[in-house]
Specification:
It contains 12 helices and 15 strands. The longest helix is centred in the middle third of the chain and has 32 residues, at 263-294. The protein starts with 8 loop residues before the first strand and ends with a helix. It has a domain at 42-272: Aspartate Aminotransferase, domain 2 (3-Layer(aba) Sandwich), CATH 3.40.640.10. A hairpin with a 5-residue loop joins β1 and β2. By secondary structure, it is an alpha/beta fold. It is globular. Bound molecules: pyridoxal-5'-phosphate. Residues 85-87, 111-112, 114-115, 157, 183, 185-186, 207, 209, 220 line the site of pyridoxal-5'-phosphate.
Length: 424
């Protein structure tokens, strides 16, 4: 484990100090890139060649059907459907659960916009519950406080791969008779009490977009244990065709769009999934190493631990930056300094309810909502978004211990600069 003290040098006055910051013109800690993501190879190439030579490139070919089954097995549910992305999967789940115009769906504001836009696209109204300060996931107490007679579902987003408190969310949902939809776009393989995320709520949504831990560029999936829900989701994803009548177009029962996943993507996903477990182990091992190393910096804090989280697969490595503990240096300045040292990091999300998208005529027309989202103020969300949250991409954790040491060294260099105030 790199201890930053060992990297200090002595200047002409005999003081222990560090080299000048890269942001001020000094040499960066590293110039080498972190592991690229997504990663393809020979196995993906062979799969693509297989599809190329096959007679079927789309329309529920065998690759898409096989991957849906394989992924459902991996997650531990009975039924899976491949779709073309993780926004559409959320929308189809909502439609399949008969949620639409006039209904409310509770979502966190600390997520990618799709979690809420899928609700609006389905015609329902997103209602924002706050997140917990300790976890950055949706706060079950805030979920309960926002339930009204119109509430039909809550979407639990496992931000960065860290599971939500699924016990409390399921309990509240049961008490009020609403559905739980898991948004697992960032949580492939994470576990809550030994169960994979995506197997706990009534239905779950996955994304296989380029940045995700299982990727084919663009893709998504719906998972559920409930056969009746599955059949509804199927209709909606296959232009309204019933599950039992694959090619039948007459007498369509439902109005659905074509949301099917092409064979190319499914074929790539099959081999990407084979690599997932080994990559999860590596991410987790490096996350543990970083967790230990970062304890030497009092301006970095961690999200709460919880024994019920049996696996966090780190789509994102999320920290809290405490500016008061680094001489009041603003988070944005710290991020710029880290990035200049060759360690890319970011502030992450802005509160979704601050986005103009929720005040457009189009949004109001499709949902019928008159909510003034701009007047919403959710304390924990705003603290995370505006002050504290500090993200590194989980793919950086696929690197070596040396790479992790570079992260620690950059933090130490910046810490030394601001805390000691002495420079070469
Ligand atoms: C939490 C969350 N939900 C939904 C989505 C949407 O997935 P897609 O980009 O595949 O539509 C994403 C993608 O970034 C996401 O991070």
């Amino acid at each position: 484990m790199l201890q930053v003290e060992s990297k200090l040098i002595t200047n002409q006055e005999g003081e222990k100090t560090m080299a000048n910051l890269a942001i001020n013109g000094g040499s960066p800690v590293r110039t080498a890139p972190f592991p690229q993501w997504p990663q393809g190879g020979e196995a993906e190439m062979l799969q693509l060649e297989k599809v190329l030579k096959a007679e079927q490139w789309g329309t529920l070919g065998k690759e898409a059907l096989a991957f849906a089954e394989k992924f459902a097995q991996y997650i531990g549910v009975k039924h899976g459907i491949c779709v073309n992305n993780g926004t559409v999967s959320l929308e189809l789940i909502l439609r399949g659960l008969d949620i639409g115009y006039g209904d409310e769906v509770i979502v966190p504001p600390y997520t990618f916009i799709s979690t809420a836009s899928a609700v609006a696209i389905a015609g329902a109204t997103p209602v924002f519950a706050d997140i917990e300060n300790g976890t950055y996931n949706i706060d079950p107490a805030s979920v309960e406080a926002n339930i009204t007679a119109n509430t039909k579902a809550v979407i639990a987003v496992h931000a960065g791969g860290r599971p939500c408190d699924m016990d409390r969310i399921m309990e509240i949902a049961k008490k009020h008779g609403i559905y739980v939809i898991e948004d697992c776009a960032q949580a492939h393989g994470s576990q809550w009490k030994g169960k994979k995320l995506g197997s706990i709520g009534h239905a779950s949504s996955f994304s296989f977009q380029a940045s995700k831990n299982v990727s084919c560029g663009e893709g998504g999936a719906i998972m559920t244990d409930d056969f009746e829900f599955f059949k509804k989701f199927w209709h909606y994803h296959n232009s309204g065709r019933a599950y039992e009548q694959a090619g039948e177009l007459s007498g369509l029962m439902l109005m659905g769009a074509n949301s099917r996943l092409p064979e190319w993507q499914a074929a790539v996903l099959t081999v990407q999934l084979d690599k997932l477990e080994e990559q999860i182990e590596r991410r987790m091992e490096n996350a543990e190493y970083l967790n230990a190393g970062l304890k030497q910096f009092d301006f970095i804090k961690f999200l709460d631990t919880d024994d019920k989280i049996t696996r966090n697969t780190y789509h994102l490595y999320i920290m809290k930056y405490i500016s008061e503990n680094l001489k009041g240096v603003k988070r944005e300045r710290f991020i710029s300094a880290m990035t200049a040292e060759g360690i890319p990091c970011s502030r992450g999300y802005v509160p979704l309810y601050k986005m103009n998208a929720f005040s457009t005529p189009n949004f109001r027309k499709s949902t019928g909502s008159n909510t003034d989202y701009s007047s919403i103020h959710l304390e924990n969300t705003e603290k995370a978004c505006n002050e504290e949250a500090l993200w590194m991409q989980g793919s950086m954790l696929l690197g070596s211990k040396r790479d992790m040491d570079d992260i620690l060294e950059a933090m130490g260099k910046i810490s030394c600069y601001y805390k000691r105030g002495s420079l070469l």
